[in-house]
Design goal:
The complex is a heterodimer of chains A (488) and B (500). Chain A has 488 residues and is mainly α. Chain A has one domain. Chain A has 20 helices and 2 strands. A two-stranded antiparallel sheet of chain A has the order 1-2. The longest helix of chain A is centred in the middle third of the chain and has 32 residues. The two termini of chain A are 36 Å apart. Chain B is mostly helical and 500 residues long. Chain B has one domain. The chains are: A mainly alpha (488), B mainly alpha (500). The interface between A and B is medium-sized, with 32 and 32 residues.
Chain lengths: 488, 500
């Protein structure tokens, strides 16, 4: 075997190195200095994320199972940004009394799942993809159960575990059908062997199963039932990780699979499936979000509907769509992490997680309220915040295909933005307009939490306006046009 | 260089104000920053008018002046493109006036004056940005920037059923902008002939004139309705009475005075200018709807007893008139439409300012509970009468000029449909007189209804300043209509040639 192939995957190797360093630190350092582990992890991960910048490799390894291109590279870097923010955000929490004994495991599991997502993004063979998918899913179940003294945490973990296993099983059943149809697990081989225009019942079933498997990770309706309970039960640091990083990786992988593998049968087989999924996801996610009083459940349903918008980039299946999808994921990461930063700061201080507890928050904690408001506006797509730009671009990407059906789809999505604006404004209303007798008192959030929130706030304000970021992503994707050759 | 274009400062000054406000510590500093900024905007607007006129006098006949364009999002050909013609210049001047008066009308805002003025600044940033842009994307962005502060301005500082009104207003306007966004992206994808470079620049799109008719058929209603919601077009006007009634004084002023004009201006600049074919084909539907707005708004105003509701419904009627005139698609009516925007903006701002001042003293807006205020507060009373006379179209004040041009322009259509509609719309003037005189009679004359009202005082200096600024502007338009209609018709003429 040619071991130099491993050089094609510098990002994965770097991440492994970070993982090993954290593991060694956790195992061999004296107990007294273990309090520095969270900071240590953040710092070396930060160093890795920066070093990452110089790690672009193009090419394939392991006879085409693994591919590294400009766009996978950028996607992984986007995940790194989110991961770094999550790490910084969780410093205070992981040093708290109940978590401190297990914080080593927390960071190791977190890094492992990220490794799995890297593989999902770069896999060009279903075997590698499944390994990535499982590596990304199973440790998360342990993370969800991290608050082992809380009943909800267990319930959430069990739910996550069962759903994950079940959806993997369906996914692999779908794969076996695909293998039966084509005799290969390589993305490129499958694509070339699926004759354009073929829509046998077996193929339709196979694609539906594959979509169901990945749809679980993205929490698309109707595979979303675990989301709200898991978000509510899991520790907030894990929830924020689950809601952005895991979703971003799955969205990208989903696009790769659908376009590279099933691109040849796009319009005959799965275009309409995807339309239905998107409409269901956005609409139901929004409608359920309206009724939530628990802020974490609320963000869960909001993230479901956001996943629907991300899927518009998949449905576009063109360069603009992919660039918009990556941009959307980046914006979604900073916006959602800003919201979760505020939620976890307040939860760490007061233990309160209901939207009603936020009443009058602006009086006592103006900066937190301001950050939360920006996050809500960005998620709702209000200019001049980043969310507006990402929504606009993803709509443009989708509409570039130009069919009437897609205009209707985007119109439904746009009408849904109004519904989503309604419930995002409910949070703003609670903080700024409503008054209450027992407002959360003024407090100073931890330094690490503030750093993360400031980073997110700056991201929300500048990622959209600074046009170079989106332009860069379009350039990156155009470098990668091979991917869409199948559709044209 | 971006700094050498005077237009960009209309966005930069409010943003600087925003920064200044964020740093200021006391109410005094907040007021100082707000007044400085508003004055700077006024001066800037004056400078712009002078420059604009001298460039036109020097024989520059290009459709837009001060045009400049900087690449923003290169992949989608989105530029920060600026430019103004006569219509936008007039709108900018109007906005500067209202912002100036609005600062003084909200002098004693309570609580949180700093936050109030910050949102106020963001709103004005959006408004000015909208009028100076000629790129659809930036236009749309500024449009939404102007809308969202309304939610908090009404929700936090409003009165009455404010939560409901704020949410209703925001959702309805954003609902309009959802259609608008789809329409704009649709226009973008058909902005150039097959194979050409797609563009968001309005001038280039108009020049290309490449939007296929079957697409215009769908995109025109989308954009027109999208902007029409903000222009209070029937049946999408229902946010307006509630929103205006609950908003604090200066926000009502700015909203009815400027923000609703964004609707009319957008309908004209995007829907009609870019899709003339569909405008000609489909105008009749919207003429009917806006005709209903005109008459229905006026009748509704007659039966209201809350001062703000009366004025809000009168705004529905007058703004309906703007859209009505725009849809007549000829230069005279178009000039009238812009004059009406100008006139209605100033006079409604005056109305809302006076209502706010009266409400601040009597703590009621119910006309049945007030009376004889003329003897108690003569300054406010006279101001109210002047605003009322302008509203019902007395010659010498702005309303007359505007409505005259509109109806003359509308009557130029020789067919039955347009003429009947015009006659019906004309009737609204009579109804306007009914509700204005009814309010004036009840509120200002007659017996004092409440003994406590006798102890009330007349306007303070900052209130007088706001009132006088607006009255002078209203009278100026009424007395020198040629100056304004000249600027406007010059800009409207080349566009209306498309329909001749």
């Amino acid at each position: 075997m040619d071991y130099s192939q491993f050089l094609m995957m510098p990002q994965e190797l770097g991440l492994l190195a970070v993982f090993l360093l954290v593991f060694l630190f956790d195992t061999f350092m004296p107990k007294k200095s273990l309090g520095a582990l969270p900071v240590f992890t953040s710092v070396i991960f930060g160093a890795f994320a920066i070093a990452n910048y110089f790690m672009l490799m193009r090419g394939t390894a392991f006879s085409g199972m693994f591919e590294s291109t400009a766009s996978t590279f950028v996607m992984k870097s986007i995940l790194n940004v989110g991961m770094l923010i999550v790490l910084v955000q969780s410093i205070k929490w992981s040093n708290s009394e109940f978590v401190a004994v297990r914080r080593g495991e927390f960071y190791e599991l977190l890094l492992t799942t990220l490794f799995g997502m890297y593989l999902m993004i770069s896999a060009r063979h279903f075997l590698l993809f499944v390994i990535g998918l499982e590596t990304a899913s199973l440790p998360l179940a342990a993370l969800v159960a991290f608050n082992k003294n809380r009943y909800e945490s267990h319930e959430a973990a069990a739910k996550y575990m069962f759903t994950a296993i079940f959806s993997s099983a369906i996914f692999m059943l779908g794969l076996s059908f695909v293998y039966g149809l084509t005799g290969s697990m390589y993305f490129a081989d499958i694509a070339s062997r699926l004759v354009g225009g073929s829509n046998t019942a077996l193929l339709i079933t196979a694609i539906a199963f594959v979509i169901a498997g990945v749809g679980f990770k993205l929490s698309l309706v109707p595979f979303h039932l675990w989301t709200a309970d898991v978000y509510q039960g899991a520790p907030t640091a894990v929830t924020s990780y689950l809601s952005v990083i895991s979703k971003g990786a799955a969205a990208y992988a989903f696009l790769v699979i659908l376009v590279q593998v099933f691109g040849t049968v796009y319009s005959v087989v799965w275009e309409w499936m995807l339309y239905a999924l998107i409409i269901l996801t956005i609409t139901l996610g929004n409608l359920f979000a309206i009724r939530q009083r628990n802020i974490k459940r609320f963000l869960a349903f909001s993230s479901i509907s956001q996943a629907g918008y991300i899927m518009l980039g998949v449905v576009a299946a063109n360069e603009l769509g992919l660039a918009s999808l990556m941009f959307y994921v980046l914006v979604y990461i900073v916006s959602n992490l800003a919201a979760f930063g505020v939620v976890s700061a307040i939860e760490n201080f007061s233990g309160k997680v209901s939207i009603d507890d936020y009443n009058g928050l602006y009086k006592t904690n103006p900066y937190l309220s301001f950050t939360m408001m920006l996050a809500m506006f960005s998620l709702a797509g209000i200019p001049p915040f980043a969310g507006f730009f990402s929504k606009f671009f993803i709509f443009v990407g989708a509409l570039e295909t130009g069919s009437v059906a897609i205009y209707v789809l985007v119109l439904i999505a746009l009408i849904n933005t109004i519904v989503s604006l309604f419930y995002y404004l409910l949070v703003v209303k609670a903080m700024f307009i409503r008054q209450d007798d027992c407002i959360i008192p003024t407090f100073r959030s931890a330094c690490s939490e503030r750093i993360a929130m400031i980073a997110c706030t700056l991201g929300i304000i500048f990622i959209g306006i600074a046009s170079c970021i989106y332009t860069f992503m379009v350039d990156v994707v155009n470098d990668n046009v091979m991917m869409f050759g199948l559709l044209k | 260089m971006i700094w050498s274009n005077v237009l960009i400062y209309f966005v930069i000054v409010p943003l600087l104000m925003l920064g200044g406000l964020a740093l200021s510590k006391s109410v005094k500093q907040v007021r100082a920053v707000a007044v400085t900024g508003a004055t700077a905007l006024m001066l800037l607007a004056a400078y712009l008018v002078i420059e604009f006129l001298s460039m036109r006098a020097a024989g520059d006949v290009s459709p837009m002046l001060f045009t400049d364009s900087w690449t923003w999002f290169e992949p989608l050909n989105i530029n920060l493109a600026l430019g103004v013609d006569g219509i936008s210049v007039v709108m900018i001047v109007l906005s500067a006036f209202i912002v100036f008066a609005g600062v003084f009308a909200s002098w004693n805002i309570n609580p949180l004056p700093k936050e109030y003025f910050m949102w106020f600044c963001l709103l004005s940033t959006g408004v000015f940005g909208f009028f100076i842009s000629i790129d659809m994307f930036t236009m749309f962005m500024f449009y939404e920037v102007a809308l969202i502060p309304m939610y908090l301005l009404i929700g936090v500082w409003g009165s009455g059923n404010k939560n409901y009104s704020a949410m209703k207003l925001t959702l309805m306007l954003m609902g309009g902008s959802a259609f608008l966004m789809l329409g704009l992206i649709g226009i973008y994808f058909h902005s150039a002939p097959e194979g050409g470079q797609l563009t968001m620049n309005i001038l280039e799109i108009a020049e290309n004139n490449a939007i296929p008719h079957e697409w215009q058929y769908y995109l025109f209603p989308m954009t027109f309705v999208g902007f029409g919601v903000l222009g209070a077009m029937f049946p999408f006007h229902t946010w307006s009475p509630d929103g205006h009634a609950s908003a604090p004084t200066a926000v009502s002023m700015l909203h009815a005075g400027v923000l609703m004009k964004l609707g009319g201006y957008g309908c004209f600049r995007i829907a009609i200018y870019l899709m003339p074919w569909a405008a000609g084909e489909l105008a009749w539907i919207f003429l009917l709807l806006t005709g209903i707005s005109v008459v229905y708004g006026a009748f509704s105003a007659c039966v209201q007893t809350d001062l703000k509701y009366i004025n809000a419904y009168s705004s529905v009627s007058h703004c309906g008139m703007v859209l009505f005139a725009i849809l007549m698609l000829n230069t005279t009516a178009m000039t009238g439409a812009v004059l009406q925007m100008l006139s209605h903006g100033l006079m409604t701002a005056l109305f809302f300012a006076l209502i706010g001042m009266i409400y601040g003293r009597t703590h009621t807006r119910d006309i049945r509970k007030m009376g004889g205020l003329m003897t108690i507060m003569p300054f406010l009373g006279v101001g109210y009468v002047i605003a009322g006379l302008a509203s019902l179209g007395l010659p010498g004040l702005s309303g007359f000029v505007a409505e005259m041009s509109i109806f003359v322009g509308s009557f130029q259509h020789a067919d039955m449909f347009h003429r009947v509609l015009t006659v019906m719309a004309c009737c609204s003037i009579v109804i306007t007189a009914v509700y204005i005189l009814r309010v004036v009679g009840k509120l200002l004359f007659g017996a004092v209804q409440d003994a406590h009202h006798k102890e009330l005082t007349d306007a303070e200096w900052h209130e007088r300043l706001a009132t006088i600024t607006l009255i002078v502007a209203v009278a100026a338009i009424g007395c020198f209509p040629n100056f304004f209609s000249g600027i406007i018709s010059e800009a409207a003429e080349p566009i209306m040639k498309l329909f001749a």
